[in-house]
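Quick one before lunch.
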Amino acid sequence: MSRKMSRRKFLKVVAGSGVLGFGVMATGCKGKSPGGKGWIPDQYQGKGDFPVNLKGRVAISKHNPSIERDDEKCILCGQCVEACKNVMGVYGNYPLPLKKEIACVNCGQCVMWCPSGAITEKRNIKDVLAALDDEDKYVVVQTAPATKVSLGEEFGMPPGTSVGKKMAGALKEAGFDGVFDTCFAADLTIMEEASEFVHRLTSKKDEIPHLTSCCPGWVKYCEYFYPELMHNLSTCKSPQNMLGATIKSYYANKMGIDPKKIVNVSIMPCTAKKFEVRRKELQADELRDMDYSLTTRELAVLLKHKGIDLNKVPDTEYDSILGESTGAGRIFGATGGVTEAAVRTAYYLATGANPPADLLDWKPVRGMTAVKEATATIPGVGAVNIAVCHGLANAKTLLDGIKANGSKWQFIEFMACPGGCIGGGGQPKSQVASQNDIKLKRIAAIYREDTGAVKRCSHDNAEIQAIYKEFFGKPLSEKAEKYLHTTFVNRHDRLFD
Ligand code: SF4
Ligand code: SF4
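Model of the iron/sulfur cluster complex:
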């Protein structure tokens, strides 16, 4: 393509040659599976290789709060289609012509697969910098578990380096007024969700199988494609939003801060969190729970903009009274982590005792197998059959099976991204190793944090115990329902007649 040829003309020429389905195989591409290893797919790793296997691209609405594309950089390689269709089961899972909206669950996997860097997250760095500069604002930040084992990669550290305490120090140096840990909120989520699951098992069997709700990509997928299963979704907000609502209520009250002056920021491995931040259902006392969500990559840009080198930041503790976390809260970042954490506390709720060693190191729900199955035997409850699914294309297979034959599982964890949040669309990209190698290193770091924790179960978190005593009363109380639970929206008719 001549450098002088306009984009419009180029697209016209390509369209004229029947670009959809048109395949010119590049040298080095033949015989290799699409996607390959690393964020630049295998077939483009060789020197001189260039993607000419033109396949089109996913449509992205200008109103999409999570992702955007720089058309000048788009080379029509079709990798975003591969990710959206084959990994996430979204592209092509609805009829044409498009109806009320362009289907997107905001996961950002197309960002990870885009070899030219044309698709990126929609950045909120300037919004957060403006809030930090506004003396009238009280800017609070929280960091998700998966970011603690990946941010270091943006500062030259090897994959799988745990940098949670350095991140806390860097955020304080950057000027945030409160630095909290989303792992604390993961423990809070487990208190609510394990209680809800035990309640459903014993008294609301029509809401079994219980489907997890902490992943906004999966929740939106369910709302689009399986609205008949929405009543099976846990009503728990995600940890991000539970913490946001708690900061603007319990924390604001305790610290004497006007909640209207609080700006809640999250650091997430995820682009779907930018969508979740805007959901109208996620508010309390007429205040939205969260204000901005930055990806791990955006945080790296923000810190570098402020001249902060993570390598040089000393380890620093998160702020109390929302900073303590247990091993259970820390494993939320890996596929299977939510399940393992929930089972630990469900066991405690049913028996009054902490689970035995095998449930504290529950191998069947760990690892990268697409759908993992396990049975937990809980005295007084019996055998609980569980499935753990990551990658939404796998969810489609599993859910179609449930629709046809019913569910053999009582509890199912869904995470949109392959590997769970450690493989999220907001995570650092790497050209030096395959994505799976990096994901496994991040997962290993997460489980090291769990086994190294003094407390391994959410119900043992002293700050969690305090917040129930002082504010929420008990799990599923009226106040807990108000701040920590939510509703869902049927989006089916936006895609289907
Ligand atoms: S963000 Fe996810 S769902 Fe949306 S276009 Fe990209 S891959 Fe598809
Ligand atoms: S798996 Fe994690 S990173 Fe991916 S969409 Fe869900 S919450 Fe976001």
